[in-house]
């Protein structure tokens, strides 16, 4: 049973929003209705949230960069008057998207360069990315693939999909296929079944993955029919994309639970975004809430260098600070890997705080989350310990102050096992 701490977002009652006052609950809970009725223009948006005329103009101008399409469900979660609302920042374009920096790159991950056939990116040896649609339930303003997301707001044509499947069939080294987009779960069940069926019958494909934002922006999509369909293609892993604890609602929680009950292993990929989740406290709440609904935090991505995203980017130092505040302070299961997906097609590079403080011939000095320094002796013969240089012993006796007794030195020599801060909290706990 899902135990909440009472902090789930409720959103507004849609019937109290003029745009949807005549919509039935049945329609509201129908994913087709949600998709058909996404907010795509400023007039509709202004019926849901407060907009100044300047904001309206900026939104219209930004639509040339990336389409706007916000599901009514997600729009109803926005705070109508708070410009810093994380839901609003994810969904509503701003004039800042028009600002380009010299370091901005159209295709920062070089996905197009590593694309042997349209729709496929083959970068790593044993797995491929397969884009089966450019449609998303909602277009995230921080989208790294903004050069193509929403270009047609349609699934890829059948010929392109068939060419992608053919490529996988002819590539025996590919054992793992990640379907992404756009959002693969926005396509019809028939189309999804077609793709999954064809991939599943390829002998060397051992597993399938789906990257989908649907649990966040269109949880109504997780229907019994979809679960039945997906269940035929195990092992199937699903990664979703929650960025902020406010996105976790009763409906999104239910969607994730249904997927978990359906036997799918769920992970989450967040993007680190300035003014949204660039806080150790916000991130800690997010990862703990995700685990409570059986979604394992998988990655925190550094925001890519895509064009028009500089206002969302944080320093890498901020990501390290967040990781420093997760590791040790909460369950290891809640700690994702912080990733810089490097420009130029270099791929994903994990970045962590420094936990290896120093090393000698025989010992490694490690730092834990509390700042305790610990000596770890590596395997080897006992005599291979600290090897004295000829003449060292005499010098040590004659000038004892040459021997460092603080910091990592005694740990490297093996004279001490740990060095602890004086006020270590765990030693002050009473039984
Ligand atoms: S769901 Fe993914 S592909 Fe679609 S807009 Fe959001 S980040 Fe981009």
Short summary:
The chain has helices at residues 25-28, 31-36, 42-45, 53-62, 72-75, 86-91, 158-169, 189-200, 214-217, 224-231, 250-261, 280-292, 316-324, 392-398, 409-413, and strands spanning 120-121, 127-131, 176-180, 207-211, 236-240, 265-272, 296-302, 337-342, 347-350, 356-359, 363-367, 373-377, 418-419. It has 431 residues and is of the alpha/beta class.
**Bound molecule types:** iron/sulfur cluster
Uncertain parts: none
Count the beta strands.
Answer: 13
Can you summarize the main beta sheet? 9 strands, mixed
Helix content: 25-40%
What is the CATH top level name of the largest domain?
Answer: Alpha Beta
SS field, number of helical segments: 15
CATH fold category name of the largest domain:
TIM Barrel
Rough shape?
Answer: globular
Roughly what fraction of the amino acids lie in strands?
Answer: 5-15%
Q: Order of strands in the sheet with the most strands?
A: 1-2-3-4-5-6-7-8-9
- Any idea what the CATH superfamily of the largest domain is called? Aldolase class I
Topology record:
Blueprint: H1 25-28, H2 31-36, H3 42-45, H4 53-62, H5 72-75, H6 86-91, E1 120-121, E2 127-131, H7 158-169, E3 176-180, H8 189-200, E4 207-211, H9 214-217, H10 224-231, E5 236-240, H11 250-261, E6 265-272, H12 280-292, E7 296-302, H13 316-324, E8 337-342, E9 347-350, E10 356-359, E11 363-367, E12 373-377, H14 392-398, H15 409-413, E13 418-419
Parallel strand pairs: 2-3, 3-4, 4-5, 5-6, 6-7, 7-8
Antiparallel strand pairs: 1-2, 8-9, 10-11, 11-12, 12-13
The structure holds iron/sulfur cluster (SF4).
